[in-house]
Amino acid sequence: MKRNSVFLMAGIILAYSFSLVFSEIPGSALRAEPSDKTRDAGGVEIVFWNVFADETSTGAFLAKASEDFMRENPGVKITINGQGGYDAVAERLEAAAAGGGGNLPTMAIIEETFLGRFHPIVEDMSGYLPPGVIANYQPGLLASGYIGGSLYAVPFNRSMPVLFYNKTMFESSGVTSPPATWEEFRKIAEALSDPERGIRGAGLCWDTDAWIFESVLYSWGGDILDGVNKNVVFNDGGRAAEIVKFFQEMEEERTLFSPYDHQEDPWITVATEMLQGRVCMMLGSNGMYSLNSQWMADAGYELGMAMQPSFGGTPSVATGGGNIVVFRSASEEQKSAAGKFMEFLARDEYAGEYAVLTGYLPVTNTAMDSEKLRAMLIEKPEYKAVLEQMRYAHRRPFTKNWKNMYGIIVEELEACLSNKRAEAAEAMKRAALACQKVMNENPD
Predict the structure, then answer these.
(1) Same domain, yes or no, for 308 and 348?
(2) What is the pLDDT of residues 291-339, one digit of tens each?
(3) How would you write the chain as a 3-class SS string?
(4) CATH number of the domain bearing residue 412
(5) Are residues 46 and 103 in the same domain?
(6) pLDDT at residue 288, as a whole number
(7) Same domain, 373 and 406
């Protein structure tokens, strides 16, 4: 197998920074930004804060789409500013809002859970988007745009955890298909592992905001909060502890690779192990599919992609990624123009092209049958697993407290998969109690 290690590792670090862990690289935010309250030659200007730098595939896509839109709508000027990652955008939005809202952009991409923090200052778009456009969005993705019956956000760069696997190593070991359940995941990991050669059948990263843990929890029949956002329920009946213990036992059996005793970023560490043939499968974002596929091919392997395993019964998978919002501080003309741009991005040719370009989900029903997506499925049939999985989408926690809560959860999760391994039952009990304290002290 080829091992173009220096080049490939540099690619992993750069791409994961942009596309998965969303490090705060300002991109075009270093440029002076015009006021979005200004008019241009009798028209209207809208400023769009993007979470990706201009050099990324999403940055390039939005630049092209905005140019196409402005040719069709000469009275509208769109200025797109890269603001770093989700956290960077959130911090800048909060700072702008604290100043009275005069420095807020017209529209922005925010991580789907952040709507719990920002919905008081964003506009209900149901009056600015045609009913047919709203009805065409994928319901499992659109669900995270609603609060109290009002449509505050629409999906854009959306993702779900999927199971990436080394198809080459599967076939050479006689494993004919990826696991559908977590018990199959464990058995296949055991079959593929060769501890003496440093090969683990699986690797696991919980993610910086507990996204992977959430998704596994949903697939286990659990949830983070109750239906009224008051009670923390992820460890009810000891479910979270059971999940953590499951992966601890795999690590003890030397069939699971944990990145939490390494110096590098956990995502980069697991991806590197998989690229070098030392991890055979891992959960990750479908938004990394295009890059992962190319990296694996460069390393001499074929990448497979399958639905996230479940604990038997009906699958349930966390959604993730970014939604587009429009701020109430914008003028009526700006809100109307922003709605038209949202509608433009939802056209089949653009929604389909974006899914093919990046591996992110097609956000509309009709985009799933677009010409570009059909062509990709012929070339890469494994992407069908992502489309199938969209039927089982589970919305992420919608509370303004989630950032504080996931920091607590991740700290305990990482401790449970480190060399100084925490006891799962006590760790998850601590996490649940601490999260409940956060909710009690600052109710939604």
Answers:
(1) no
(2) 888 899 999 999 999 999 999 778 999 999 999 999 999 999 999 999 9
(3) CCCCHHHHHHHHHHHHHHHCCCCCCCHHHHCCCCCCCCCCCCCEEEEEEECCCCCCHHHHHHHHHHHHHHHHCCCEEEEEEECCCHHHHHHHHHHHHHCCCCCCCCEEEEEHHHHHHHHHHECCHHHCCCHHHHHHECHHHHHHHEECCEECCEEEEEECEEEEEEHHHHHHCCCCCCCCEHHHHHHHHHHHCEHHHCEECEECCCCCCCHHHHHHHHHCCCCCECCCCCCECCCHHHHHHHHHHHHHHHHHCCCEECCCCCCCCHHHHHHHHHHCCCECEEEEEHHHHHHHHHHHHHCCCCEEEECCCECCCCCCEECEEEEEEEECCCCHHHHHHHHHHHHHHCCHHHHHHHHHHHCCCCCECHHHHCHHHHHHHHHCHHHHHHHHHHHHEECCCCCCCHHHHHHHHHHHHHHHCCCCCCCHHHHHHHHHHHHHHHHHHCCC
(4) 3.40.190.10
(5) yes
(6) 86
(7) no
Give the tokens for residue 33.
């930004």
Residue with tokens 């799933």: 368
Question: CB of 248 within 8 A of CB of 421?
Answer: yes
Verify that 76 and 102 share a domain, yes or no.
Answer: yes
Residue 32 pLDDT greater than 50, yes or no: no
Of the pLDDT bands very low, low, confident and very high (cuts 50, 70, 90), residue 380 is confident
The tally of domains found in the chain comes to 2
pLDDT over 70 percentage in the chain: 91
Q: Which tokens is 123 given? A: 């506009």
| pLDDT category of residue 29 using cuts at 50, 70 and 90 | very low
Domain presence at residue 308 = yes
Asked if residue 23 is part of any domain, the answer here is no
The whole domain housing 138 covers 33-159+320-394
What confidence score (pLDDT) does residue 359 get? 84
Length of the chain: 444
pTM given for the model: 0.86
- Higher pLDDT pick, 359 / 233: 233
**Residue 123 φ/ψ, nearest 5 degrees:** -90, 145
To the nearest 10°, report the CA torsion of 106, 112, 117, 120. 50
